[in-house]
Predict the structure.
Amino acid sequence: MLQCLTLVTHNTASPNLVKLIPLVSIMLLMLSAFIMPLLKKKRHLFGLTGGALAILMVLSFVNVAYIYQNGGYYFDIGHFPAPFGISLRIGEIESLIALLFAIVDLMVTWYAYYSLEKEIKESRIAFFHTMNLLLLASLLGIVFTNDVFNGFVFLEVSTLAACGIIVVKDKKTNIKAGLKYLILSSLGSGLVLMGIAFIYSLSGHLSMDYIHEAMIANLDGKQNTILISVILFTVGLGIKGAMFPLHIWLPDAHASAPSPSSAILSALVIKAPVIFLIKVFYKVYGTQIIHETVILDLVLLFGVMGMIFGSLFARSQKELKRMIAYSSVAQMGYIFFAIGIGNTLGVVMAIYHIVAHALTKSSLFLAAGSFIEQTGFKHIEDFRGIGKEMPVTLGIFTVSGLSMIGIPVLPGFISKWNLAMASIQSDKLYLLIFLLISSLLNASYYFPIIINGYFGEENLDGKVFLSKSKPIKQLLPLIILTVLMVLVGFFSGSLIEFIERGVYTV
């Protein structure tokens, strides 16, 4: 039986310095963001961003190592403990997601150093870095928070910052996509706020742990109010997490934004709200309450629809980045599918797939950005034979694409295999059909790009070997992301075991 997610007892032996890491991480990013507009030179902008992200990565790694040895802990902000003050809760899942976000953002920033000025005006680079750091700080706040209203505040900050990295190109399509995201995301935030109002009226608390205790103690006669509140949270966070059919902002935003922005949006921005939703389900409401509602069945339905229709839409696209954007809808479908199954293995695989997809999709978007940057083309048909001109970049795209399809050893296969096992455990064998269909659809739009990129004399005619390839120092962040993605597959057993520790009460 799935227990209260990431609810871990206070570890009084944890050193004060380790407990400060979450707060220091958020403050470091925010302070760096406010300093950014004062800098003018490109190397200073990237130096500050890269330095802050490198420090964040080290701090996050220390946090993971400590939690691996000692378990999770709480950190109270200010002079008042919960329920009167704001508290952060950092366990296995939160620390792992923070490390993931730091690594991906650092690699994207590394890539952006060589390519960003080719997509946006030089005068807008400082704005991009400011928004990026504020965005990452707010996403970490969403992941760390143990207070639902504090989570809402960070959601609002992330919305504005995400709009910033979308419109930074300063073109009509970007502004239109940014406005669409702002309107829909604001609607999602409003629904979340209404959900918070409902559960506050039921419990009198904003702290997740105290809300859960109060609702369990006063459950009788409140079922309808609880159902309304959980639906509000699900729809609101589903909009932000690109749950089908609430995903309509995503294709335009991801396809029109600069490639570094697309990578951040797909790898990070749509993941934090899902983590928040899982915490709401299993920390705020708890297993008993959530299984007495129909919400998991609805999430499962939307997950299946996302897996199938996201892939069908991706298959029909002509532009490469737009195809990858719709692929993200399909992959988020797997995550909601995993949550909707409703058992322990399902939730564990939702977290695992978040990690795998963040590494894979950031690599795919950056590889696609490299194709577009070096050739000037956008359409899939224009990249026939690109493997001769850019073999390393296509190799990176190939490995990432194979993971999306679910080739054994790669993390995409690990996710799908374990989702099949979770479906069997929950006695929902019919779900295996949807997993199979979605995998075949994934193959139908990734394999043609890979095959046409490498093979066929008509594709290679007139192409010059390595003529458009980037220097290795520019490709290194993509290589690192791909290697990490492969390692997530090879060492999936240890990673899944670590995630499981965060799912059970200890």
Summary: Residues 305-506 form one domain.
